């Protein structure tokens, strides 16, 4: 299809588009599908440049754009019935502070516990009851970024010092993992170097778990793992909005990121196995195990990446602030950090 602006590439949207912009060029995009509506695609942004104008919002950046503020998706009745006010949860997040608990679940004192190495070296008379643990009920997302000096000390002279150090300093940029994609998604052919803007509705299975969906979203806003982008019809939506779905056996709220994952590089990694223990444990050593609370939520996304992973529910747009559970690169990044 031709565009009134000869310098702008025009593509066909899978569904009603959430953003239209004509500010950029150089995207070499082709899609073959039954035309529904059209959107113009912007220059592919990188982590070293400001986010492109199409994927900005007042909540994370003050950049001019041509997004349709009044865009309202077709919302099913069950979702409209959700009484969800995330602004209250956000105020709770602003007031939340990390609290500590003891091994038996009682609130722990604020005094600093000696390092285990010092305990052994100095022969201190301590007990497991003296240990403090962060209370998971007062979890705050992005914790590793509050300990930058310690991380930079750990990373000194490591092979991945520069890469991981950049993540600790700025957060993880999705743009660093974008790759061209040619293929079919949901019955539509794509051939482009950057994912076009799209809105995909939530999975109908969420209807049976609406209370769980709303409570989980509010909990994530309270912890800071989810950011309120704005109310539908009041602010432009995120550049890409992908479906919420439910893994019903736990249950677990999941963000279906299959759409954007098509444009994400393969980042293979290998998990350590229990059979590897003898190779690094000596005689009379012992092994202990810890489980990170919401592991991916310790690692922040670069602020301008967040609009690529939008969520809609209950009349509000959201974006994740931390590694999403469902993004193709999250396991690789987390494994590299731990």
Task: Characterize the structure shown.
The protein is of the alpha+beta class and 338 residues long. It folds into two domains: 74-98 and 139-272 and 290-337, HIV Type 1 Reverse Transcriptase, subunit A, domain 1 (HIV Type 1 Reverse Transcriptase, Chain A, domain 1), CATH 3.10.10; 100-134, no CATH class. It contains eight helices and 14 strands. The chain has helices at residues 77-80, 86-95, 116-122, 148-155, 161-170, 210-223, 258-261, 330-337, and strands spanning 10-12, 30-32, 38-40, 100-101, 133-134, 181-185, 188-192, 198-199, 226-231, 240-241, 244-247, 252-255, 311-313, 316-320. Strands 2-7-6 form a three-stranded antiparallel sheet, with no helix packed on it. The radius of gyration is 23 Å and the shape is globular. Mean pLDDT is 75; it is low at 1-66.
Write a brief structural summary.
The chain is of the alpha+beta class. Helices cover 19% and strands 14% of the residues.
Throw out a few tags for this protein.
338 residues; alpha+beta; HIV Type 1 Reverse Transcriptase, Chain A, domain 1; 2 domains; three-stranded antiparallel beta sheet; 8 helices; disordered N terminus
Topology:
Blueprint: E1 10-12, E2 30-32, E3 38-40, H1 77-80, H2 86-95, E4 100-101, H3 116-122, E5 133-134, H4 148-155, H5 161-170, E6 181-185, E7 188-192, E8 198-199, H6 210-223, E9 226-231, E10 240-241, E11 244-247, E12 252-255, H7 258-261, E13 311-313, E14 316-320, H8 330-337
Parallel strand pairs: 8-10
Antiparallel strand pairs: 1-3, 2-7, 4-5, 6-7, 9-14, 11-12, 13-14
Helix pairs in contact: 2-6, 4-5
């Amino acid at each position: 299809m031709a565009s009134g602006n000869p310098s702008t590439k025009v593509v066909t949207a899978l569904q009603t588009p959430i953003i239209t912009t004509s500010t950029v060029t150089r995207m070499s995009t082709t899609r073959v599908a039954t035309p529904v509506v059209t959107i113009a695609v912007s220059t592919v942004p990188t982590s070293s440049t400001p986010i492109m104008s199409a994927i900005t919002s007042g909540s994370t950046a003050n950049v001019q754009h041509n997004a349709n503020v009044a865009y309202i998706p077709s919302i099913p009745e069950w979702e409209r019935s959700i009484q969800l006010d995330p602004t209250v949860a956000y105020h709770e997040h602003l007031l939340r502070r990390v609290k500590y608990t003891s091994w038996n679940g009682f609130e722990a004192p604020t005094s600093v516990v000696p390092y285990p190495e010092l305990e052994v070296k100095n022969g201190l008379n301590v007990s497991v009851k003296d240990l403090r643990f962060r209370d998971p009920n007062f979890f705050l997302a992005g914790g590793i970024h509050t300990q930058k000096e310690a991380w930079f000390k750990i990373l000194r002279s490591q092979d991945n010092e520069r890469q991981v150090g950049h993540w600790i300093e700025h957060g993880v940029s999705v743009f660093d993992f974008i790759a061209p994609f040619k293929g079919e998604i949901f019955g539509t052919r794509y051939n482009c170097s950057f994912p076009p803007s799209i809105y995909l509705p939530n999975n109908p299975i969420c209807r049976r778990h609406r209370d769980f969906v709303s409570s989980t979203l509010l909990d994530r806003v309270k912890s800071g793992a989810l950011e309120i982008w704005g109310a539908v019809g009041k602010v432009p939506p995120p550049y890409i909005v992908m479906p919420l779905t439910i893994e019903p056996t736990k249950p677990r709220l999941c963000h279906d990121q299959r759409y954007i994952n098509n444009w994400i590089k393969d980042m293979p990694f290998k998990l350590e196995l229990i059979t590897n223990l003898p190779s690094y444990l000596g005689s009379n050593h012992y092994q202990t195990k810890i489980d990170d609370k919401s592991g991916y939520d310790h690692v922040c996304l670069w602020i301008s990446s967040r609009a690529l992973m939008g969520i809609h529910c209950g009349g509000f747009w959201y974006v994740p602030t931390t590694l999403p559970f469902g993004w193709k690169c999250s396991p690789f990044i987390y494994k590299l950090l731990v």
